Amino acid sequence: MERITIRVSDRRKARLLRDFLKSLDYVDKVTIASFRPSVSSKAKNADFFAMAGIWAKRDITLDKIRQSAWPGRA
User: Fold this and answer.
1) pTM summary value
2) pLDDT tens, 1-41?
3) SS (H, E, C) 10-55
4) Are the beta carbons of 33 and 3 closer than 8 angstroms?
5) Cβ-count burial of 8 within 10 angstroms (0-12 exposed, 13-18 middle, 19+ buried)?
6) Residue 21: exposure state from Cβ atoms within 10 A (0-12, 13-18, ≥19)
C-alpha cells in the first residue's frame, strides 16, 4: 500500500479532488486534514529591525562578495 500527500490551497478544490479520488476503485481511503503552519513564539516576537546595521562600519561591496564566493570567475 502506498500513501500520497497533496497540499491544496483551496478547500473547495480539495473536496473536488477528494470526490474524484473516491470514485476510483483502487483508492482505499481519502481524508482531508486542515494544515496550518505553526509559528513559534520566538518568530512572533522577533523584531524585524533587530538585525539592521549588522554590516555597518564594514568595507563590503558586491564585488568583494562575488570574489570570495567565486574566486576564479569574478
Assistant:
1) 0.43
2) 788 888 888 889 988 998 999 999 998 888 888 777 666 66
3) CHHHHHHHHHHHHHCCCCCCCCCCCCCCCCCHHHHCCCHHHHCCCC
4) no
5) middle
6) middle
- Cell 549588522 locates to 54
C-alpha atoms less than 13 angstroms from C-alpha of 6 in its C-beta half-sphere: 13
Looking from the CA of 59 toward its CB, the CA atoms found within 13 Å total 0
Q: Measure the CA–CA gap between 5 and 24, rounded to whole angstroms.
A: 17
The answer to whether the beta carbons of residues 17 and 8 sit under 8 Å apart is yes
Per-residue DSSP letter, 56: T
